[in-house]
Design a protein that fits this description.
It is a single chain. This protein is α/β, with parallel strands linked by helices. It has 7 helices and 7 strands. It has a 7-stranded mixed sheet, sandwiched between helices. Strand 4, helix 6 and strand 5 form a beta-alpha-beta unit. Helix 2 crosses helix 3 (53-61). The longest helix has 14 residues, at 127-140. The chain is globular, with a radius of gyration of 15 Å. The N and C termini lie far apart (43 Å).
Amino acid sequence: MNDLLLFCGKFLRHGTKIASLAPSSRWLSRATVGNVDWDRAKVIVELGAGTGPITRAIAAKARPGCKVLVLERDPDFARLLRERFADRADFEVIEGDVRDLAAMLAERGIDRVDHVISGLPVPSFPADLQRDLFRVVGRVLAPEGTYNQITELALVYQGLYRRYFEEVRFVFEPRNFPPAGAYYCRRPKGVD
């Protein structure tokens, strides 16, 4: 319940800077990472983790040695995530902006990631921020990697993701409140 109150309070104060009124359900969280090849994943980046429901789904599946970088801009959420995942040696919570992702990875000696899992409210971003996000994702994502994006508006934003990726697939999760889903995107297109 505390997560719901914290998340709801942030949503009411910051509106579309927060992706949802409530944290993702365990069903949506699992669906969002449902296409990850856990046996092969070496580096996973989560963007906009909030209170960490998708982070928990990643933690339940990630094998030892898989580096998980959790990027969260909000200081309260970042602090909470650090506390919750302090026992996971391969997890690092970074407080920062997605536009700085390439530099953050470079500082850690990482040039490619296997999966980018996003809980960010990308459709509400200004066009220049969307381009910046997909430009950096295109630079850091391994050739067979995926960009996974949660959404509460099933199929509404498929055109947005098709603009930036050659392959876009949607999975629906009706048990979330409200019903939601995830886009699985592969092969980024060049972004100018």
